[in-house]
Each structure stands twice: as C-alpha cells, then as structure tokens.
Amino acid sequence: MPSELTKKIDLSLQRIETFHPPEGLYLAFSGGKDSVVCKRLLDMAGAKYDAHYRVTSVDPPELVRFIRDVYGDVDREVPRDDLGKPITMWNLIPRKLMPPTRLARYCCEELKESGGEGRMTLTGVRWAESKNREDNQGVVTIMSRSAQRELGEDENFRPTHQGGLMLLSDNTESRRMIETCYRRHKTTLNPIIDWTDAEVWTFIRGERIPYCCLYDEGFHRLGCIGCPMASRRGRSAEFARWPKYKAAYLRAFERMIAERERRGKIDGTWRIGTDPMEIFHWWMEDGVLPGQLVMDEFD
Fold first, then answer.
1. What is the pLDDT of residue 129?
2. Where in the chain is the domain with CATH 3.40.50.620?
3. For residue 122, which of 199, 44, 215, 193 has the smallest C-alpha distance?
4. Are strands 140-143 and 165-167 parallel, antiparallel or unpaired?
5. In this model, does residue 266 exceed pLDDT 90?
6. For 260, what's the count of Cα atoms within 13 Å in the CB-facing half-sphere?
C-alpha cells in the first residue's frame, strides 16, 4: 500500500476504535465499493458490528445478487410503514403524489435512511463523492435539532446546511460529547470520509475484496435505478439496460395520476403531464414536450 493510504487506513481504524460503542456499530451496507471497504476495515479493527442492507426495490439486479451471494452475513431489511406494510418506490410515488426529484428526495429518507435509529451508524460516505457531502458530513455527523442546541456553541462542531452538526476533530473531549448524545439522536460515523476514489480502489485490490461486477462494466457509482441525483445520460443508460424498471416507474406514475384525480389535485397548477409517458419525460428532463411525438425505439 502507498504510504499516504497506509496513514489513512490507520486513521480510519482509529476512528472506528474511538467511536465504537459497547453494543457495537450498525453498518449501513449498500454493496457498493465504499461499503465493502468499510466492512473490511471493521474486520481489521476487530470491531463488534452488525451489517444491514436496506431493500430499496430499485437497486440494480446485479448488485442485489452480489450482496446475496458474497455477503450472506449482511441482514436484508425491508423498509416498512407504521402498519408493517413494505415500502417500495412503487407505492411511495402514488402516496407522495409526485415522482422523487432533486429537491424532494423523499425516497432516500423512506427507503435508506430510516435504519439504525438509536445506534451509532457507520457509513461509507466520502467527501470525494460530492460537494453536498463535503458540506454536510464529517467524521461524525449528528442529525438533530436538539443536538444542535446542546452542542452548537462548541468549537469542536460545525452546523451543516441540513440542520445537523459535523464533528471537526477526533479528540477525547469530542468523544465524550458524542457518547452522551448518540443514543438519543441519529448519529453516523464515516471512517473513510477523506479517502479518494483511487485510494478506495487501491485498498480493494490490495486486500482482494470482492466487488460488484457493474464496476468492471463502466459504472462509477451504484445506486437506485433512475435516481434524480444522477446525470440525465446516466439515467437514460440505466433505463436502456434495465427496461423493466422504466415500465415499473410508468405504472407507478399511472397510479399516482389516479390518486391525484381521486383527491382532486389534477388542476391548473399541475403542469408536469397528464399521462405516465409525459410525466416520465418531464422527470427525465429530456426536452420532450407534452404532445410531442417520439419514435418508440427512441423514447
């Protein structure tokens, strides 16, 4: 391993040891490259943890099979509502009366982020992934208004744009503060927050860690098919590769329209389309206007 990466590995292991609670860590495992790195680091640290994969209903089939076949010790969690019924993208869209968008990413909260309540949750979030993560995530991040009131004046923490707190240093005083509040708040530990993409792959290859085959086919990040945070070109490529997911979105849009009609919410303020394909083009931001003809093989 390069010396700079060796230093980061040691620092990541120190972070795990420093913020390791007696009952163990909750590993939020997605099956992506960062998740497999975090899982190996936890094993290297000899840490107590339990790994959980949230079944989103829109992950690539290859990724789902990879987790099932290679990481059998990872618990599969199906998100459920207050009545115990499974939550999927296909019943979320009609319930929310709109598709998920960049500004209304209700799917992340409902499908991915609801696990690990009351636990110190470990994730593979890294600053190199996006500017938004750099602004809103630190080594430890506490997402709570009450935590901001309690710790917001302390110099060891900085408020995030999302209303949480980001830990700025890993010192002993900070550790005591985290220990007093993580049981009551949504708290995450991000041990590889400062790793680059190149360092992640060097570690994977050096440790011979299995990873999903989609990376070898040109995918740089693995996530929900059709995620509005992805590029338009990337989303189009996903629907070309997995057309059944496009059909599933169209059926969900059809049910969404029916629910809006039932509630009297199809009126002059509703401008994104009145049939599933119109809404799909609006959602994809592909420049196809309502009423515009599109050849089947190109839509």
1. 77
2. 3-79+114-214
3. 193
4. antiparallel
5. no
6. 24
Residue whose pair of structure tokens reads 């360092």 in the numeric block: 199
| CATH number of 3-79+114-214, picked from 1.10.10.10, 3.30.70.1340, 3.40.50.620, 3.40.309.10 | 3.40.50.620
Region 118-138: mean pLDDT is 75
Of residues 188, 224, 222, the one with CA closest to residue 92? 224
**Do 89 and 83 contact (CB within 8 A), yes or no?**
no
Kind and range of the H or E run holding 260: helix 243-262
- Residue 167: predicted pLDDT: 65
Which are the contacts of 23, defined by CB distance < 8 A and separation ≥ 6?
A: 48, 119
Tell which wins on pLDDT, 18 or 5.
5
pTM of the predicted protein model: 0.83
Write out the DSSP string of 100-141: --SS--HHIIIIITTTTTTSEEE----GGG-HHHHHH--SEE
For the residues 4-15, what does the mean pLDDT come to? Answer: 95
Phi/psi of residue 144, nearest 5 degrees: -165, 135
82-96, 249-263, 273-287: the lowest-pLDDT one: 273-287
Query: For 14-18, 219-223, 243-247, 263-267, which range has the lowest pLDDT when averaged over its residues?
Result: 263-267
Q: Which two tokens stand for residue 216?
A: 């070898």
| Listed range (1-5, 73-77, 94-98, 292-296) with the worst mean pLDDT | 292-296
Q: In 10 A of CB 48, how many CB atoms?
A: 12
3-state class (DSSP) for residue 76: strand
Backbone angles phi, psi at 27, to 5 degrees: -90, 115
Neighbours of 219 (CB within 10 A): 19
Contact 125, 133 (CB under 8 A): yes
